[in-house]
Design goal:
Elements lengths: L1 E9 L6 H9 L6 E3 L10 E4 L5 H26 L12 E6 L11 H12 L6 E3 L5 H14 L5 E8 L3 H9 L20 E2 L1 E8 L8 E10 L12 H18 L14 E3 L6 H13 L6 E3 L2 H4 L6 H14 L2 E2 L15 E2 L4 E2 L4 E8 L3 E9 L6 H7 L5 E9 L3 E4 L2 E5 L1 H8 L6 H9 L11 H17 L3 H6 L5 H5 E7 L4 H9 L11 H4 L6 H10 L5 E5 L5 H11 L7 E11 L2 E11 L4
Parallel strand pairs: 3-7, 4-5, 4-6, 10-11, 10-15, 11-13, 20-21, 20-22
Antiparallel strand pairs: 1-8, 1-9, 2-3, 5-21, 6-8, 9-16, 12-14, 15-16, 17-18, 17-23, 18-19, 22-23
Helix pairs in contact: 1-9, 2-3, 4-9, 4-19, 6-7, 11-12, 12-13, 13-18
């Protein structure tokens, strides 16, 4: 588990974490009304914006956090004498969390991350986490895992999104934006506001001072319900929260027996978007986890939903609050508007507890939770060390799909689109549609998917059908539901969701023909393909999507190894999946299992 050594937040409420915290503590919000025509949006809207360039804002936050880290290291050297940490070179990971980056200028997120890393002097290959609204927590979880793996000494984790016409119009098309400042969990809530911010946390394998913050284990689980509608039963969020509580219990109790969380945790910081169904889902998950009496709060009414920055920003503010012995109130909350019991903090409260849980949920059915604590006891170090050991994988099946060929387990199924069309014997079909018709054919939702999701769906169906013939899988059928949470889906690419990004832009570029399409907008996130596969197969395990500058097998293997920090992930559907258009795509996927998995 990594230590937190520095942080920064830049938002309309300030350019340091301290400025942002003091603004929130005083009840100040950055959300305001914007006139019609702002960001080329015909209607007016409420948001919290800076109008900064994406790369400039991200770089500025990272530089401020690095400066803070260097100052903290220098101070620690004066008192402890042996504090050392190199924040450049190949032993430092650079992780960028964002949903769209500079989408208005068609700038690749992978290219943006590389430029920022170069300016920071970081030699390791940057990693972009693009996991919808949970991206910030996913990035922190990844940073923690990479340090635990022993391959990195530190991780600079930055989150940023700069909402403009693309994102604003998309959420308007979904009818998700509130016509007033948002009110999380309140009876009168009417939707979310969007926000612009950059936030950075720097993680280290060692503390630089005695009383340090530690980032606990984080977990990601999928609802396997719907790509844009929260689960009514909150299965994914509950499973993630349950695992986080188990991790926290192990950390503070050598007996690993059930403990009273109210004695150790100050609060749960919820996602709290102020949308009807997401707030309700969080209430269900908290109730199922037995935490209804634990104080809970939400920060979206101060900054709006800052997308890729949210998980990092809200984690930092939660830390600052506990350092100040405070539980921050939820601005705009008056009367509970979700079913079930929740202990929502409307006003600031005092606390003497030193830990908290952070939760997020996002499109694609993904959910993430982490815990963090100030200098927690460590009675089970031996157990933690055992869990950190690298795992060995066995690859059971592979598939490669390009416009030229389809190869399953080193055996060619098709060679060229022409052969498919001839065997189809009907009108022209794309390669993926022809494969769907011949190999699957029983899932009409396929025709609603974007190209990336179609590619992933077809490839995964062929792979999983090949797996069904394995005797070891048949032997496990009697164990029923076990595989459903033990299989993770972890994908990589370079182009994000570029194909549907282009399609969506066509619906908003002409002000005289301005019809933002919600059905297209929901597919402008690459992680949706993981959600589609999870829904099809009822997989509740981790689903994550990473964007890399190029197809780097070594980096993909490192991330996969790090994902084994979640001991329940024992089987992986993983690999490279990129789709630019009908003539340029590649799926190179594998089923990999822990060598001792039975």
């Amino acid at each position: 588990m990594a230590y937190i050594i520095a942080d920064n937040i830049i938002s309309p409420l300030g350019e340091t974490s301290e400025e942002n915290y003091l603004s929130v503590k005083s009840g100040r919000s950055g959300i305001r009304a914007y006139e019609p025509g702002t960001c080329n949006i015909p209607e007016g809207f409420y948001a919290s914006l800076l109008f900064e360039d994406f790369e400039t804002l991200t770089l500025k936050s990272a530089q401020k956090a690095i400066a803070n880290a260097q100052k903290n290291i220098e101070n620690a050297q004066k008192t402890m004498g042996n504090a050392r940490l190199e924040l450049k070179g190949k032993r430092t990971a650079f992780i960028l969390s964002s949903t769209k980056g500079n989408i208005e200028e068609n700038i690749s997120l992978a290219d943006s991350a590389q430029r920022i890393a170069n300016q920071l002097g970081i030699d390791s290959q940057p990693i972009v986490v693009c996991n919808a609204c949970i991206s910030g927590l996913s990035a922190l979880i990844l940073g923690n895992r990479l340090i635990d793996s022993g391959l990195y000494d530190a991780a600079i984790v930055c989150g940023c999104d700069t909402p403009r016409q693309f994102i604003l119009s998309g959420f308007q098309s979904l009818k998700a934006l509130s016509p007033e400042p948002c009110r999380p969990f309140d009876m009168e809530r009417m939707g979310l506001n969007l926000g612009e911010a950059a936030a950075t946390l720097i993680l280290s394998k060692n503390p630089i001072q005695g009383n340090s913050w530690r980032m606990g284990d984080g977990f990601i689980r999928n609802d396997a319900f719907h790509i844009s509608t929260p689960s009514k039963t909150a299965d994914g969020l509950y499973l993630s929260l349950q695992r986080t509580l188990e991790s926290f219990t192990k950390e503070i109790s050598s007996t690993c027996k059930q403990i009273d969380m109210k004695e150790h945790l100050a609060f749960i910081n919820a996602h709290g978007t102020a949308t009807l169904f997401n707030d309700q889902m969080e209430s269900v998950a908290i109730g199922r986890a037995g935490l209804s009496d634990l104080p809970a709060n939400a920060y979206k009414s101060f900054w709006g939903h800052t997308m890729g920055a949210a998980g990092i920003l809200e984690t930092i503010i939660s830390m600052k609050a506990i350092d100040d012995d405070t539980i921050l109130g939820t601005r705009g909350f008056s009367e509970l508007g979700v079913s079930g019991k929740m202990n929502i903090c409307a006003e600031n409260r005092p606390t003497d507890k030193k830990g908290f849980i952070k939760m997020l949920s996002g499109f694609g059915g993904c959910n993430a939770t982490i815990w963090a604590a100030k200098n927690p006891e460590r009675e089970n170090i031996a157990l933690s060390q055992i869990e950190q050991q690298n795992r060995e994988f066995t690859t059971t099946h592979t598939i490669r799909i390009t416009p030229e060929e389809v190869i399953l387990d080193q055996r060619k199924l098709w060679e060229g689109k022409k052969k498919l069309e001839e065997q189809e014997g009907q009108e022209h079909h794309s390669l993926l549609t022809s494969l769907y018709k011949q190999k699957i054919g029983n899932y009409p939702k396929f025709y609603k998917m974007d190209g990336l999701s179609r590619l992933g769906f077809v490839a995964s169906e062929i792979l999983l059908n090949a797996e069904k013939g394995d005797t070891d899988v048949e032997r496990r059928e009697e164990e029923g539901e076990r595989l459903l949470e033990e299989r993770a889906i972890i994908f990589f690419n370079h182009s994000s969701s570029i194909a549907y990004d282009r399609n969506y832009k066509e619906s908003i570029n002409d002000k005289d023909n301005y019809f933002p399409s919600p059905s297209i907008f929901v597919y402008t996130l690459p992680n949706i393909v993981t959600g589609e596969i999870a829904i099809r197969n009822h997989f509740h395990g981790e689903t994550s999507f990473f964007i890399l500058p190029d197809k780097d097998e070594r980096m993909m293997e490192e991330i996969l190894q790090a994902s084994c920090r979640d001991a329940q992930s024992k089987s992986f559907l993983t690999g490279w999946i990129d789709y630019e258009d009908e003539r340029h795509f590649e799926a190179d996927l594998k089923i990999k299992k822990m060598r001792n998995y039975k």
